[in-house]
Amino acid sequence: MKFYPNERIALFIDGSNLYAAARALNFDIDYKRLLDHFSENSMLVRAFYYTALIEDQEYSPIRPLVDWLDYNGYTMVTKPTKEFTDAFGRKKIKGNMDIELAIDVMEMAEHLDHAIIFSGDGDFRRLVEAIQRKGLRVTVVSTVKSNPPMIADELRRQCDRFIELMDIAPSISRDSSARPTRRHDDFRDTPPVMGGTRRLEPAAGSIGADDDFEDDLDDDDYDDEDDGDYGDEEDDDAP
Predict the structure, then answer these.
(1) Beta strand 137-142 pairing with 161-164
(2) pTM for the full predicted model
(3) Cis-peptide into 148, omega within 30 deg
(4) Which of 2, 114, 118, 178 has a CB 3.0–4.6 Å from the CB of 9, allowing a cystine?
């Protein structure tokens, strides 16, 4: 499937899902190049980026990315995460953005010819089917080259076109030579979360705006349910 010059397209990016896929393939996304890549041969109407934010942190490593995207052509959709303790006394974070993404896709459908969804979540299969009935073509961007694959088989079967993330990596990845060298003091330890494990976060100002800011918001940390594709635990019992 090709992109047509007069085709109205929109990008719907599940931030944590795209980050996890790119990390599994061992490259960093350059979001300016990503926008240029998909607007090159079509009429880009809107680019949505969805992510949950941990608001009670003194420094949120994802905040610089959110601010940069907001100033550089993306429509940001965010909401605060919810922290809770499970039956085993482990702290968990919940911040699923599936509903927000689905609502925006349905509302934008009448203004588009082609929707491009950056996610492998099998829950979006019915969403894809619904907008196909409205006459839209649907492309899904994810990967089958990670272990395990990041895209649910049912979503890949339903969409009109599947784009392997690794295939477009040369066009949307950041030049590794431009990545700042990290020093040992560029990281600071954070309080225990997720069953007592500790994370290292980038210190403020130590890295660029599109570096590893999704580390704390991977799908397997807070996703509402396990699609069977990746992630270890289910959060359905969250309050």
Answers:
(1) parallel
(2) 0.73
(3) yes
(4) 114
